[in-house]
Amino acid sequence: MAQYASILFSMILVNNFVLVKFLGICPFLGVSKKFDSAVGMGAAVTLVMALAIAVTWPIQQLLNAWGLGYLQTISFILVIATLVQLLEMVLKRYVPSLHASLGVYLPLITTNCAVLGVATLTVDEGYTYPEAIVAGLGAGLGFLLAMVLFSGVRRRLEEAEPPEVFRGMPITLISAAITAMSFMGFSGVVDHLFGA
User: Does 118 score more than 80 pLDDT?
Assistant: First the structure.
């Protein structure tokens, strides 16, 4: 149980895909302006990551058994694209307001390098199937945490009066860098808590 907790918290805080590995920056910067959209996108990416791991891990085992491991990337992309299309259809049908607020960023989950990165990482790290699912869930929750935190930062930025040269994207990027640096403080926490 401690192993799973270590993987979960490591993926959320220490190895956060957005703020530490810098994957998934496009939706991070594009959808984090509004809290509701940030939560929706974070939840959608979390769901896609967890489902993608649940499907891609066994596929990778089959590919390895058949000597077709080199097809990893293309097969993972096909699985992720299918999952995103299914998620888009469900949201459009049952949660149209969230579907509208996510706009073009929802189909872009297909090309979100964080989702593909998590799927690849769980295979490369040699995780067992349950560990891989926990890692995917942790990575998704880390993405959600980053989105929610940064939406709060962006709301504060709208109230601020930065110098003219920093307004818009420059102050957003500087704020993202400072937010990412704050996550460096978690580097020893998981090791200390779980002895990993």
Answer: yes
Q: How far is CA 167 from CA 25, 155, 160, 163, 181, in A?
A: 19, 14, 10, 7, 21
Look at residue 196 in the predicted model and tell me its pLDDT: 53
User: Which tokens sit at 46?
Assistant: 């979390």
C-alpha 74/C-alpha 93 separation (Å) is 29
**Token pair for 145:** 């945490």
The C-alpha atoms of residue 152 and residue 176 are separated, in whole angstroms, by 12
pLDDT tens-digit map of 2-31: 889 889 999 998 889 999 888 988 889 888
Q: Do the Cβ atoms of 106 and 84 come closer than 8 Å?
A: yes
The domains of the chain are located at 19-185
148 to 35, 36, 77: CA distances (angstroms): 7, 9, 26
Tally Cβ neighbours within 10 Å of residue 174: 13
